[in-house]
Structure to design on (998 residues):
């Protein structure tokens, strides 16, 4: 390839993008498309502005192409010419293509044939005096078949002509974009045809670069891992199994949970959590899980899972475990989880216990309905709710006193307590939606309440909207003053000690006792950017963060609240009204775009401290958060990520590696302490 | 902006700028400008129900920042006009002016002319001058969507480019130069290259605009567009919708009038209406068939193709 010398250069400088645009223009001219130097300049200018408005620092070749297209092409008839010119210079594709071509040519050399060769006898082709050489030939042959360079027909097999081969590879490159994907595609198509995966080159390795592994489908990892075990390549198997574990814990799925489990067990890489994830997929694993792990481990792993998943897993385990141990496990679950267990579990419980579970389920139904009513004002839900509620009361009445000796007695009492509260909510709702909302708000956690009010706000009629807004603001105001007084109390306590040398003693004070924030507040006013994730599970945390922030608004320069999009607030003061307006303005559904929010957060802002509160699960196809964090740290930002116990661990690790501090906070109300510490440590 | 002239006998109120504010001010519906591409995409979706890639918006924004007019080129019904108008409106924070082109447009029609009676009375003065769209947009800092630019004459096109380049308009009769550096004043042109009845654009013109190509969306995106737009009680299943889009794509290869997403939307909408009129809560194949005949046959010579493709997908009835 003529261009290959140029394409091996690093791809990250602006100079290089200029050079690329010039080469592209030159290529266009060679093909007969008139491109003047002013157009090149124009394209460069636009491209740079494009990157700026997108907040992108790295070169983005797709964008470069679109801009060159927009500037260089005048008419539709010129499009094919441009296309051709772009192909000639496109760097990533060229690099990949030349890699593939040289790989193909090396394989052909091993086989001792050339493009276009008709294979008359396969045996003859693979024949060789030495065994090692034969194996190598076989590998080369298989790889060429996998790639589609050797094709078969009725009349026997043949190597593609050079032109055809290159066209084919180019198509592959354009479609798949990366070597990993290409190998994946080749191998998977073999697997689909029932052929064994054949990548002996990989199997001889004891270690595969993480980059490559990341690109492979989990199913393929399982196959490769099995092959590695078969080849007694234990190191590789372990590496693959650990990688698989991370993937599984991040929600990727394999089609055969059973083989994945066996592989990971053989490679000694199975944890209770992964075991349960796999069990959720395959019933056959139940007896293995019970054999491999203690009940204690299982229970612990269960409590960190979502109730629905936990319920499914318990029902799976129930089929394989003894009645006694299962009852133990069930009675120790918390009520929320219990209410969602499938009815099939009932067989191991006594009749009264079964009735309790039924009541629990009715309780949750009634609760769901009433909340639905409050956010939609659709009366049907209210009727359903009171129906379920009264049936539940019936069941509970009969149960009274009969569960004394059962391990489920504590659960029974807890349910009764919650039922009383639900009853109040129900009565209030029958009165009016507004009073129902007020009552429900006190039953719910702060985050749940705000979400409910937010939904009522976005769906309701004007009156209800007002009411929801009022309630939400009041809730926040109440909590706010509570938070403030807590903080101020601390301050008063410490201020006695620090009166003499306020400023100089701060740092020492801080080390001894993490409280005297007021001093810092004066010193560092307006230096902090708060970035708050308000998606589902994080809403609660973010509200707490806002509450804390409201006490220190003058230290905070900017607050960003985000889901799919971000809303920002430049602040010097933060009222309950501001908080609610901010939360309600971003809506309550959608994706989570952390990277985007980070970008918005630092826009036109000199480096200082940024506190990110998020579980780091990004659901939009954007840059990963760590990429942006890395950049910011290089520019001098100090980044603190405060995460809940259940967060994206891989991403957190990447953040750490890129210079951020990651703090785990056990529950929402504790977030204040972490933030305060981040203020001045 | 130009300093207003010395006032005697209340001439201020007669200045062209004031007249413009008086005439067009009401139409502007001022709001906060939105200039962040991601936010623009969001607003386009939520407020205008338009589905637009952020890449496209970024290029438009980059062009505006560099003072470049943009041309949306593509087949009809791909949203060029609506998207252009919406982006301009968001960008300026004022409702954009729409300038549908025609062969006999000239500067008098778009910049302004003199009221004959008033001119008799006052001479060629600001009092007798009637400001028009383009001048109003410049003075007020609003965007202009020049729709179907290929329908206009070459002189007209060059005049537009000159104005956007220099961001000023000269009215020699008034001996006056209107100038405004407000970045809200931007232009987007639309053009449909497939319409052979229209003029070709000159090289000089094409070199000075940023040309953004519009294509038919891929099926997934088109389905999303229809869902975003559809406003009906009867439920349209995803399978049926996917078939409609496939059929539309077939017609795009065959028919003279190529149905754009706009037609697909209309088709889905009509099918739902028909289902509702039937008293059904679910759109069925026959509703789609019936609606398709109406919406897709825009030209007589397409009737057979439309019929054939509809029958292939939705059966005869
Ligand atoms: N990307 C899109 N998002 C939403 N609607 C679209 C989109 N593309 C096309 N449409 C449909 O097309 C109509 C707009 O078409 P229009 O702007 O007149 O197209 P053009 O100017 O390209 O002929 C919209 O009302 C909508 O029904
Ligand atoms: Mg149009």
């Amino acid at each position: 390839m003529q261009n290959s010398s140029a394409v091996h250069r690093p791809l990250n400088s602006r100079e290089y993008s200029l050079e690329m645009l010039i080469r592209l223009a030159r290529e266009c001219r060679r093909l007969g498309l008139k491109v003047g130097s002013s157009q090149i300049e124009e394209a460069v200018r636009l491209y740079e502005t494009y990157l700026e408005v997108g907040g992108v620092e790295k070169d983005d070749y797709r964008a470069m192409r679109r801009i060159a297209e927009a500037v260089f092409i005048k008419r539709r008839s010129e499009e094919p010419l441009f296309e051709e010119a772009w192909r000639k210079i496109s760097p990533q594709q060229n690099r990949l293509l030349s890699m593939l071509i040289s790989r193909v040519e090396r394989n052909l050399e091993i086989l001792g044939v050339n493009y276009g060769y008709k294979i008359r006898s396969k045996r003859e082709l693979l024949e060789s005096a030495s065994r090692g050489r034969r194996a190598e030939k076989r590998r080369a042959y298989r790889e060429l078949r996998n790639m589609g360079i050797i094709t078969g027909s009725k009349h026997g097999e043949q190597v593609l002509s050079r032109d055809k081969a290159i066209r084919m590879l180019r198509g592959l490159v354009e479609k798949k974009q990366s070597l990993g994907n290409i190998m994946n595609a080749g191998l998977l198509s073999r697997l689909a045809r029932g052929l064994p995966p054949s990548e002996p080159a990989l199997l001889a390795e004891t270690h595969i670069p993480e980059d490559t592994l990341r690109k492979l489908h989990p199913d393929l990892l399982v196959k490769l891992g099995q092959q590695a075990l078969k080849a007694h390549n234990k190191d590789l198997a372990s590496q693959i199994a650990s990688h698989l574990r991370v993937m599984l814990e991040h929600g990727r799925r394999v089609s055969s949970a059973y083989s994945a489990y066996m592989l990971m067990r053989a490679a000694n890489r199975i944890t209770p959590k992964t075991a349960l994830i796999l069990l959720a997929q395959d019933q056959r694993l139940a007896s293995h899980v019970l054999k491999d792990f203690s009940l204690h481990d299982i229970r612990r792993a269960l409590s960190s899972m979502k109730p629905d998943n936990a319920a499914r897993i318990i029902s799976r385990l129930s089929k394989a475990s003894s009645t006694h141990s299962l009852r133990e496990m069930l009675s120790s679950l918390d009520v929320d989880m219990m209410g969602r267990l499938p009815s099939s579990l009932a067989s191991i419980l006594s009749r009264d216990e079964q009735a309790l579970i039924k009541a629990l389920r009715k309780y949750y139904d009634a609760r769901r309905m009433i909340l639905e009513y409050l956010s939609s004002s659709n009366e049907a839900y209210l009727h359903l709710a009171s129906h379920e509620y009264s049936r539940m009361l019936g069941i509970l009445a009969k149960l009274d006193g009969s569960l004394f000796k059962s391990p489920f007695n504590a659960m029974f009492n807890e349910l009764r307590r919650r039922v009383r509260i639900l009853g109040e909510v129900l009565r209030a709702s029958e009165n009016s939606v507004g009073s129902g909302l007020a009552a429900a708000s006190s039953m719910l956690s702060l985050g749940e309440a705000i979400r409910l009010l937010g939904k009522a706000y976005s769906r309701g009629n004007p009156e209800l909207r007002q009411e929801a807004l009022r309630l939400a603001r009041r809730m926040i105001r109440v909590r706010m003053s509570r938070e403030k007084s807590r903080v101020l109390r601390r301050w008063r306590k410490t201020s006695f000690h620090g009166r003499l040398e306020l400023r100089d003693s701060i740092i020492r004070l801080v080390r001894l006792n993490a409280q005297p924030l007021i001093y810092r507040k004066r010193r560092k006013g307006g230096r902090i950017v708060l970035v708050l994730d308000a998606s589902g599970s994080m809403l609660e945390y973010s509200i707490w963060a806002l509450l804390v922030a409201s006490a220190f608004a003058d230290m905070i320069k900017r607050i960003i609240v985000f889901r799919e999009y971000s809303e920002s607030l430049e602040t010097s003061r933060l009222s309950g009204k501001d908080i609610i307006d901010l939360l309600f303005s971003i809506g309550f559904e959608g994706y989570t775009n952390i990277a985007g929010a980070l970008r918005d957060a630092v826009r036109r802002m000199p480096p200082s401290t940024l506190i990110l509160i998020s579980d780091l699960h990004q659901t939009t196809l954007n840059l990963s958060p760590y990429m942006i964090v890395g950049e910011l740290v290089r520019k001098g930002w100090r980044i603190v990520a405060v995460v809940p116990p259940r967060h994206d661990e891989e991403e957190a690790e990447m953040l750490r590696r890129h210079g951020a501090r990651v703090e785990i906070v056990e529950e929402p109300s504790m977030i204040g302490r972490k933030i305060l510490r981040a203020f001045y440590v | 902006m130009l300093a207003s002239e010395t006032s005697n006998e209340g001439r201020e109120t007669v200045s062209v700028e004031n007249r413009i504010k008086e005439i067009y001010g009401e139409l502007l519906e001022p709001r906060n400008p939105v200039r962040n591409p991601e936010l623009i995409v969001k607003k386009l979706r939520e407020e205008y129900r338009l589905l637009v890639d952020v890449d496209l918006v970024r290029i438009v924004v980059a062009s505006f920042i560099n003072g470049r007019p943009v041309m949306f080129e593509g087949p009809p019904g791909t949203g060029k006009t609506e998207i252009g108008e919406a982006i301009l409106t968001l960008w300026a924070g004022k409702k954009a002016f729409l300038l549908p082109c025609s062969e006999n447009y000239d500067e008098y029609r778009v910049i302004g002319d003199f009221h004959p009676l008033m001119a008799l009375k006052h001479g060629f003065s600001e009092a007798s001058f009637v400001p028009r769209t383009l001048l109003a947009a410049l003075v007020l800092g609003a965007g202009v969507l020049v729709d179907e630019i290929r329908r206009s004459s070459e002189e007209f096109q060059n005049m537009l480019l000159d104005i956007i380049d220099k961001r000023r308009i000269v009215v020699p009769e008034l001996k006056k130069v209107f100038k405004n550096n407000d970045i809200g004043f931007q232009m987007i042109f639309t053009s449909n290259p497939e319409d052979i009845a229209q003029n070709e654009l000159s090289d000089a013109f094409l070199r000075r605009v940023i040309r953004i190509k519009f294509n038919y969306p891929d099926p997934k995106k088109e389905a999303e567009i229809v869902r975003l737009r559809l406003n009906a009680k009867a439920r349209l299943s995803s399978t049926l919708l996917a078939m409609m889009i496939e059929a539309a794509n077939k017609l795009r290869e065959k028919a003279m009038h190529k149905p754009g997403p706009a037609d697909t939307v209309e088709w889905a909408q009509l099918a739902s209406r028909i289902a509702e009129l039937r008293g059904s809560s679910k759109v069925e194949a026959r509703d789609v068939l019936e609606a398709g005949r109406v919406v897709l046959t825009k030209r007589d010579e397409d009737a057979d193709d439309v019929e054939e493709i509809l029958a292939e997908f939705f059966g005869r009835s």
